Amino acid sequence: MILTSTRNPEIKVPFSKGIINSIPQDGGLYVPSSLQDLRRWIMYTDENTSFQNIAGTLTSAFINEEFSPIICEKIATEAFPHEPVIKQLDDNLFTLELYHGFTGCHRDYGVSYLCSLLETMLTMNGGKAVFLDYTRGELGSILAKTLKGKKNLKAVLLCKKGEYRGLNDEDLYWNGGNIYPLETEGDNGKDLIREVFADTPFAEEYNLTVANTANFGRLMGHFFFFPYAFSRIKNKVHSDIYYALAPGNYSNLVAGLYSWRYALPIGGFVLPSTGALTTDVSGSSLLMDSIVSMEKRNKADLSDPSNLERLEDIFSANSLMMRNFIYPSAVTDEDVDNAAKELFIKYGIFADRHTGRAYAALKNRSEDIFEDEGTAVLIARDDPALSQSYCRHTLGEAPEQSDKIKDALKPTILNRPCVTTAEEIKNVIREVSK
Predict the structure, then answer these.
(1) What would you report as the CA-atom Rg of the chain, rounded to the nearest whole angstrom?
(2) Which end of the chain has the smaller Cβ count within 10 Å, N or C?
């Protein structure tokens, strides 16, 4: 796979270089320069095809110029000791649960895949790399699980003081682990990360990269959700399949759209409207960023990514297709709470606010989806036990937290000085790179 920039198709880099560099120098985001038709393989899968096999085969199709099918299978096998769960609720309604990974968060899949991918690249090609990321706490716990045993990858994380959770003593760099957590007194962590990455020679010398979805390798870990869901329900339904999801930073939406462009049969996507992706007066989808020319936009933010520019790139050749393929819907807080209650009363499902928002949007768009007997897959991103307070307030009771969730939420007390300058962070990167 050759990667190019959303802002300049003349930029072309090998896949491995794009994964290390995270974003192109022109400030855009990396996207595939060409697409393949994988319909024949996708249609061959069924309920007996494992998530690992789907991920390994698609990885091989994407990057066969750089790695053999055996290596690609190894990447997927090591990345995914777990798989999503799909459940049928009604004749034409399913849920896809993405929270059966290490920490109960959908990010487990993408981060684990990126770590496995990078570790394999570095082992085969030589070198080491360092993740430099900002976190509100949860990323540290995920990276601690996925970097365990990796020899060529370290992570330097910034977080506001007192917000780390899920890190154990053995995960910390000074105890022999792969995570070096740093704290800031205020909310300037993202600014410090931007300052470090702005020193391009330094970033290149130490192979600095990110574990968020600005990195195309992290986004790839989300690709496999959709062909996996299709493999599980293709023999149970005989109509178009729509996916209802919460927007987040649009990573799952973009991943689903890439799956569609690789020839996965998809009817469309339903999601709550936001200020960035909404509807016009006719009810058709409208991407507000498209109003601003590329020349007037800020560079992609490595510390706080959005995938809207990738979404725009996907539909750049056919804006009419976007209007008939993405179904945003305005939902209120009351809509969300009522949707969560309906899921609980009707199907016995605990829903967090994100799942409630997705279901509320689906209900609002039900005529578009179900009038031709369409099928909907409701994506539940994170374990509802991570949102006990919302469930208890909305539903009157909350799911119990498993030991896995309790471990992921456990506060981590560092008792170390806070960082205040980019140079302090650079010194830590120099240390972990020795």
Answers:
(1) 21
(2) C
Instruction: Give me the tens of pLDDT residue by residue for the chain, a chain 434 residues long.
Output: 889 998 888 999 999 899 998 888 888 999 988 877 777 777 788 889 999 999 998 888 888 778 888 998 999 999 999 999 999 999 999 999 999 999 999 999 999 999 999 999 999 888 999 999 998 778 889 999 999 999 999 999 999 999 999 999 999 999 999 999 999 998 899 999 999 999 999 999 999 999 999 999 999 999 999 999 999 999 898 889 999 999 888 899 999 998 888 888 888 999 998 887 877 766 666 666 655 556 666 788 888 888 888 988 888 755 666 667 889 999 999 999 999 999 999 999 999 999 999 999 999 998 888 777 889 999 999 999 999 999 999 999 999 999 999 999 999 999 899 999 999 999 999 999 98
The reported pTM is 0.93
CA distance 248 to 271: 10
What is the torsional sign of CA 198, 204, 208, 210? positive
Determine contact, residues 213/223, Cβ cutoff 8 Å.
Answer: no
Question: How far is residue 112's CA from residue 217's CA, in Å, rounded to a whole number?
Answer: 10
With CA atoms as reference, report the closest residue to 54 among 68, 65, 67, 38: 38
d(CA 375, CA 227) in angstroms, rounded, equals 15
In Å, what is the CA distance from 368 to each residue of 273, 282, 365? Answer: 16, 14, 5
Q: Residue 260 and residue 411: Cα distance in Å, rounded?
A: 40
Spatial distance between the Cα atoms of 366 and 419, rounded to a whole number of angstroms: 50
End-to-end CA gap in the chain: 31
